[in-house]
Design brief:
9 helices; 84% helix; mainly alpha
Length: 192
């Protein structure tokens, strides 16, 4: 199975040439905005195609970029429009927005770090809330490290991890580490 995937990647990258990495980066960025694309597939392909270090850096950077662009889109272009429409209909979202805006930095980072959390939904909700951009960006930069590592590690060795569940336990520890790292960063910069 892995031989088939590696052959496919090698043939695809050779046919795309220099455009191969650009296409991979484009799809990862777009996935954060449009949830129809499977992020874990692109991260896994980047790890297989470019190796663990370069694949990780490419995947992490462009996932963060896509999430931030999605956040900005909703913060700058959509937020006021939605608030006006809901106000005209008599719907008050102040309580919900307050809960989201007041999420602790550690909570936000942990949510972002979880592999099965829909990134586009987090981006939209954060963009519509009153959460500071600085808080969102820092949580994103920390949380995505663990998410990308999870998908790169599990995606590349999924069959092996099924045979040996200790790999999944190790990856579960990553979410805990994300929480601890965000707690330390929050103490230093006080995002809450």
């Amino acid at each position: 199975m892995m031989d088939m995937i590696n052959t496919f990647i090698d043939n695809t990258l050779q046919s795309l040439g220099v455009m191969g990495p650009i296409v991979g980066c484009f799809f990862i960025t777009i996935e954060s905005i449009l949830p129809i694309l499977p992020l874990f597939v692109f991260i896994t392909l980047n790890f297989l195609a470019f190796g663990n270090i370069l694949g990780f850096i490419i995947s992490w950077f462009f996932t963060c970029l896509g999430c931030f662009l999605s956040f900005l889109l909703f913060r700058v272009k959509v937020q006021n429009y939605i608030y006006r429409k809901l106000k005209m209909r008599g719907i008050n979202l102040d309580k919900g927005i307050s809960v989201i805006s007041n999420l602790k930095f550690e909570q936000l980072t942990t949510i972002i770090a979880m592999p099965f959390t829909p990134a586009f939904l987090v981006n939209i909700v954060a963009g519509l809330s009153k959460m500071s951009s600085k808080k969102f960006i820092c949580a994103l930069l920390i949380g995505k490290v663990f998410l990308v590592y999870f998908w790169g590690f599990v995606g590349v060795s999924l069959l092996e991890s099924i045979k040996n569940p200790i790999y999944l336990v190790r990856v579960g520890i990553l979410v805990l580490v994300a929480y601890i790292v965000s707690k330390i960063v929050n103490k230093r910069f006080n995002f809450n």
